[in-house]
Amino acid sequence: MRPLSAAELLTVWESNVQRLPLTQALAMLAAASPDETADELARLPIGSRNERLLTLRGWQFGPEMTALAGCPACGEQVELTCWVEDLQTQPEHGLHGPLPTLETQGGPVSFRLPNTYDLLAAGQAPDVDAARLIVARRCLQATEAISPDSLEPALLDRLAAAMETADPLALIELAAHCPHCDHDWSALLDVATFFWQEVQTWAQRTLRDVHLLARAYGWSEDEILKMSPVRRQASLQLA
Fold first, then answer.
1. Which are the contacts of 238, defined by CB distance < 8 A and separation ≥ 6?
2. Of 46, 133, 208, 215, which alpha carbon lies 20 to 30 A from 39's?
């Protein structure tokens, strides 16, 4: 994987701006990972996908991440700041090697970690419970101990907990504190959505800069995008 140039990132944004967040995340990884196929990237466990997205995000926009979260107690918007390297707490999972297991009354059963294909399938479900069932049926390995077609809520809860333990970067929570009402809670960080929103903001700002500089100096879009951010900003101030 490698960083994307300004022109490459702008192309990814333009081509995927109307697509689903899961697809947008894969598009960014695909552009930065020319040696891997889209299918290989889609089969990465979500934690591994998030690990790569965080690395790419650090390359593109720096190591510090700042997000806004609504306090569930008083509704005020609270600013949360974290660092990319602090979130990358696990080695990347491979597609090979032993599968995680879950103990049941009928004995241990194996399951694979959910990937993008599983989340896309779950996204078609009418509610959260149906989505959980879809992911479980796709990820559990059918054995004599258990059938993915007959899963009780208690077992689904245990499976979800086991998946979270086996793939901790799949679900990232940030410790949040509200200075207005002194409430503490855990805020969920959706890496794919957060990163894409940053790309969206960056792309709109970059296109504005290109417009202003092209009008002021007659430079082409390619010439402007190849400029370093520092030089581009200096030129904007002069213009």
1. none
2. 133
